[in-house]
Fold this sequence. Notes:
This protein is of the alpha+beta class. 42% of the residues lie in helices and 28% in strands. It is built from three helices and four strands, in the order E-E-E-H-H-E-H. Strand 1 (2-8) and strand 2 (15-22) form a beta hairpin.
Amino acid sequence: MKKIALVPDKPFHNNVDVAVMDFPDEENRETKRKRCGITVEFAESDVDDLKARGMDLEAAMKYYEDYIYKLVKVNISSEWECVEGWEQVMGTVREHVSAYF
């Protein structure tokens, strides 16, 4: 399983760009390299689509967790585990998505 770090950029009102970085072993921690970048969108219309499917805030957050995992997996072609940055990315998503519930 690939270990990665997620590094979010400053969020906009409707999305956040996230750098997906290789996470080397502890000895080489400064040698992270960018694997890809993703954009997580949480505009009001995106959240309205989830609400129309009957999702509450917690279901929407599960949706975003699964969405991010699958999006990164497609880009790096491997199962992965986030060892740094997950809480920061999901905190940003929760802050913006919860404004629409």
